[in-house]
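ok so for the tutorial part 2 we go from a plain amino acid sequence to predicted structure tokens. step 1 is just haveing the sequence, like this:
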Amino acid sequence: MKTTFYIVFFSIIFTGCHFSKSFKKDLVSGLTSVGNILSCDDVYLSVNKEKTSRKTFIYGEIFFLNFNDIKGFTSLNGKVFPGLRLIVVNQAGDTLMKYDDLYSGYKDGLDYSPLLLSTDITLASPIRSNSEYTLFCKIWDKKGSGTFISKFEFKVVENDQITKEGSGVTYNEIYLFSEDNKKVITDNKAKVNDNIHIIVEGLTGFKEENKLLFPGLSLKITDAGKNSILDYKDLFLDYSETGVSVTDFFTRVSSHFKVSEGKINNPLECEMVIWDKKSNARLKVKTNIIMD
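step 2 — the prediction. this is what the tokens look like for a chain of 292 residues:
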């Protein structure tokens, strides 16, 4: 996708002082930046090291905000001293993420040329899917008065490759998670021997007894030829009498599996069913995964 910028520069020279301001806007993503003394050759978003002008992301994705060849810092002994503040707010104006200075660890300054500054944002809790957010990023010169401020409005959605069928239940998030990579799987692709989790957060609707719930959970995986890879009838069978904590259940319910090396007939069809042994509440989660 082609990225289009609208760029304006102007300067005023008065009584020996130099004031310089710049304005940038990506007309596709809506990413805007305003510089005061500081300027930047290229401000852009990236996902998996690829430039993007998207403004909609899947829950669990990670995107980077990059500032390439940023200039105007006061130089001391060939080094510059940037600060970078990041804030994410929801539509109600509540602050969900706040980092006062992501470059606070560089006490001795930076001497890179061209100077590339960047920050990454993981779109997971306290971020929620099916919601819109605004990101504010401020770069400033710790040895001068220059600033460079960016604003980006974006939306987070559910992974549409995961289907859900529920009866008498609600939930906050459902997603796949790679234990090896420590991140959410958003493209439904995974490696063999990776421990893959199917996770449900904030599940409610089950009958409570003395702060306990009595769930069942089945996990079934078949390949493209309808061959059974695994079939667990009830992973909560041992808790049928004792129950599980309401708090623990609400925080996270998950099952996980690992596929070892060998001939794999892709895609694998995964079906996880969670049901209440004390009521008719039930949730079915289905998705396909490509193993590599």
